[in-house]
Amino acid sequence: MKKLAFYTLGCKLNFAESSTIARSLEPMGFERVEFQQSPDLFVINTCSVTDQADKKCKKVVKEAKKINPESVVVILGCYAQLKPDEIVQIPGVDLVLGANEKFQLADIISPYFISEKKNELPKVIASEIRYDLDYHASYSVNDRTRTFLKVQDGCDYPCSYCTIPLARGQSRSSSIENVLGLVKEIAKKGVKEVVLTGVNIGDFGIQQGKRVESFFDLVKALDAQNELNRFRISSVEPNLLHSELLQYLAESQNFVPHFHVPLQSGSNAVLRLMKRRYQRELYAERVREIKSLMPDACIGVDVIVGHPGESEEMFLDTYHFLNDLDISYLHVFTYSERANTYAVDIQPKIDVKVKAERSKMLHILSDKKRRAFYETQLGRKGKVLFEEASTDGFMEGFSENYVRVRVPYDPLLINTIQPVRYKSLDEEGLMRAEILFEQFV
């Protein structure tokens, strides 16, 4: 058996694809192991949302070659598609695969484990992004308790700061029939929760360049199936989260009340610079609608600080807008300049220290929002899916509305959904809970 290790940077979509690509190597005799277990093959699945992801890639390559100098190191993912010639110059990199080629890894890699072919490395196998990129179904399994199921890829939105359309191509989707087939396959593996993921999953339904289905169609189909009864939506653009969909989700038996809705800025002036497809008034209306239909719903928000042209006044607009919203937490990103994006030409640029200060303010606000949301749940009941990992005699899990719960470790609780009552918040801001009765289904 040859040993294989994956290191995945970035989003849930990357985790789904890494897991699928790893499984494709099993028939070739590869056994997936931990990074430190001297693998023969390291595969690094990269992100390129920020410059930090690029730096992390270089660091992981260096560590891989320390662990096994004779290993083959393959780089794939968004960074690999955007800058393959740059990556292949990194000491230790053997093979760089583009967006479409990464799913052919099983066919591509085999010859390079023959000694004479290994002399041909390092090598780039990456074609330019095409309009007719294939769609590759993917899902994670055994990486985490929850499974990330990819239902959509690519994006047609030209946001000023984003390289994803350049790295992943145009929006395209699986079919509802295929998604249902994967859900059935996943359920047989004992999975309790599926997180629907993609680049822009609200745009689900485009096949071979034509819209044939919709995200709402997919939600209704998943709600009607009997294989799995816990689905979470990873992220939906506010302009695609329409009232009819929200009303349906409020009454759904299978979809949990947790929404992650990208905002990026609370200033309409910055939203225009970003080329976003909504203004903050629409966003505020979506939040009000969610909370009116599902008062206990958890709402997460993506926000970017330091976009070119963001004045102090515009940032404070964002801060006060978020402070007044009934939201539960923030994912804060510091703007990173990416080549071939519109934002590169926007002035003025924001000083690094100013961006760091703005990021710190929003992280503090996020902590405040999360704690305030958790406090509204004290004394209430929830259903928690417990994870395998344990820390200092405790284990954790997430409720349907994304409350992070900590209880004393019990191996029998792993990968089970248990009814709990929320009791108190600990010093770290995690919810302590009592299990009402154990159910091992």
From TrEMBL:
Q: Which of UniProt's keywords are assigned here?
A: 4Fe-4S, Iron, Iron-sulfur, Metal-binding, S-adenosyl-L-methionine, Transferase
Q: Which residues form the signal peptide?
A: none
Q: Does the keyword Secreted apply?
A: no
**Sequence ranges assigned to domain MTTase N-terminal in this UniProt record:** 2-114
For this protein, the record's PROSITE patterns field holds: MTTASE_N (PS51449), MTTASE_RADICAL (PS01278), RADICAL_SAM (PS51918)
* Highest taxon above the source species: Bacteria
Entry's CDD domains? Answer: Radical_SAM (cd01335)
Which coenzyme or cofactor does it need? [4Fe-4S] cluster
UniProt key word Ubl conjugation:
no
- What Gene3D superfamilies does this protein's entry cite? Methylthiotransferase, N-terminal domain, tm_1862 like domain
Q: Which residues form the Radical SAM core domain?
A: 141-375
**InterPro entries named among the record's database cross-references:** Elp3/MiaA/NifB-like_rSAM, Methylthiotransferase, Methylthiotransferase_CS, Methylthiotransferase_N, Methylthiotransferase_N_sf, MiaB-like_bact, rSAM, rSAM_horseshoe
Protein name (Swiss-Prot/TrEMBL) = tRNA (N(6)-L-threonylcarbamoyladenosine(37)-C(2))-methylthiotransferase MtaB
Gene designation per UniProt: mtaB
